[in-house]
Amino acid sequence: MTSTQPTLPIQIRSMCREDLPAVIALDQHSFSLPWPESSYKYELEVNELSRCWVAETSTPDRPATLVAMIVIWLIVDEAHVATIAVHPEYRRQKIAQRLLAHALIDAYHTGAVRSFLEVRRGNEPAIRMYERFGYREVGVRKKYYQDNGEDAVLMDLDPLDLKRLLNLQ
């Protein structure tokens, strides 16, 4: 097992149209069922319930590099984590944790009181991260993923605890 690397400095900002090529490449590197470009365009330009964020890093000798993204849907008072990914070269540096905390804090300030998501049963690192936030398993969607028939674990975070989120950021 690889040890956790030092925390990488990142900046989190709203996703913009110019980010789409990097976001789509990241999605394709991360998932066997990536979203099509049209889905990201819809989330950015049409879906008023969508909140899209990216994390980037830069160094004095390198320009900003997009290393992670998240899409959350705000449905009434719930924040649904639609997708989250970190580029494989930047994993295990708590980027997903910081990005998720940022997105949930934003959702909290927009009126969300709870959150839910689906995650592949076999994605143990993601499940452990969600559990650190206080998510708990509330159900299973049998054969949810079309590529291999893997189950999805349905997880719920109720209530959104601002103090806990701030500590995870």
Instruction: Please name the fourth-level CATH homologous superfamily.
Output: Gcn5-related N-acetyltransferase (GNAT)
Tell me, rounded to a whole number, the average pLDDT. Answer: 94
What portion of residues belong to β-strands?
25-35%
CATH architecture title:
3-Layer(aba) Sandwich
Query: Fraction of residues in helices?
Result: 25-40%
Q: Tell me about the largest β-sheet.
A: 7 strands, mixed
The secondary structure category is: alpha+beta
- Major sheet strand order: 1-2-3-4-5-7-6
Counted beta strands: 7
What is the end-to-end distance? 24 Å
The count of domains is 1
Shape: globular
Individual helix count: 5
Uncertain stretches: none
Task: From the 3D structure, determine the CATH topology.
Answer: Aminopeptidase
Structural commentary:
It is a single chain. This protein has 169 residues and is of the alpha+beta class. The chain has a single domain (11-168), classed as Gcn5-related N-acetyltransferase (GNAT) (Aminopeptidase, 3-Layer(aba) Sandwich), CATH 3.40.630.30. It has helices spanning 20-30, 37-45, 95-109, 124-133, 162-168, and strands at residues 11-14, 50-59, 62-75, 78-86, 114-120, 136-141, 152-157. It has a seven-stranded mixed beta sheet, with helices on both faces.
List the helices and strands and how they pair.
Elements: E1 11-14, H1 20-30, H2 37-45, E2 50-59, E3 62-75, E4 78-86, H3 95-109, E5 114-120, H4 124-133, E6 136-141, E7 152-157, H5 162-168
Parallel strand pairs: 4-5
Antiparallel strand pairs: 1-2, 2-3, 3-4, 5-7, 6-7
